[in-house]
């Protein structure tokens, strides 16, 4: 026997079973979205949407109204159109890797605490740098990564709670 993988689009991510089609359907209900696809990349849900004027933060909030937090995509990538195979089916292998560095603002930290927190944001999110106005969740963060951030911050002498990461989502 040769195992070729699952026939459905169900994945397991951080202990949760997620039906990717359910997330895609929730995304497609938004007025600005024509088509949507969801994949797992680097232990994160990444949504690819084709539409006009899609605001990724708004789309994540929209989907979060109907889906549990663990099913909300960490990253939303807007495309002109989703790539298709010669048979007209979605070509998941042709979906580009998300470039989160384009979402990073240019405003730099002004205090030592902000410098430390910006460095930690960048480390846990696997980014080169993070500006003080950048939203943790807009850059691909989620609840598990938030806990990692809190732990690393404590190691560096900054005491923050996971709740504070959710309430105050920027370095500032």
Label this structure with key terms.
alpha+beta; 29% helix; three-stranded mixed beta sheet; 5 helices; 172 residues; two-stranded antiparallel sheet; globular; single chain
Topology, pairings included?
Elements: E1 10-13, E2 16-19, H1 20-28, E3 33-41, E4 44-51, H2 56-64, E5 75-79, H3 112-124, H4 143-155, H5 162-167
Parallel strand pairs: 4-5
Antiparallel strand pairs: 1-2, 3-4
What would your notes on this structure say?
The N and C termini lie far apart (55 Å). 29% of the residues lie in helices and 17% in strands. It has 172 residues and is of the alpha+beta class. The protein has five helices and five strands; from the N terminus they run ββαββαβααα. The protein has a three-stranded mixed sheet with strand order 3-4-5, with helices on one face. Strands 1-2 form a two-stranded antiparallel ribbon. A hairpin with a 2-residue loop joins strand 3 and strand 4. The protein is globular.
């Amino acid at each position: 026997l040769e195992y070729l993988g699952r026939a459905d689009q169900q994945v397991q991510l951080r202990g949760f079973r997620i039906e990717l089609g359910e997330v895609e359907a929730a995304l497609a209900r938004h007025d600005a979205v024509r088509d949507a696809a969801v994949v797992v990349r680097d232990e994160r849900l990444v949504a690819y949407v084709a539409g006009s004027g899609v605001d990724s933060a708004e789309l994540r909030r929209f989907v979060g109204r109907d889906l549990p937090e663990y099913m909300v995509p960490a990253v939303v990538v807007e495309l002109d159109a989703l790539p298709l195979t010669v048979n007209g089916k979605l070509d998941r292998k042709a979906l580009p890797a998300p470039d989160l560095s384009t979402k990073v603002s240019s405003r730099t930290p002004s205090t030592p605490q902000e410098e430390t927190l910006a460095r930690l944001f960048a480390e846990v999110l696997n980014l080169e740098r993070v500006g003080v106005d950048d939203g943790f969740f807009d850059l691909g963060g989620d609840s598990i990564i938030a806990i990692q951030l809190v732990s690393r911050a404590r190691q560096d002498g900054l005491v923050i709670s996971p709740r504070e990461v959710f309430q105050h989502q920027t370095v500032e």
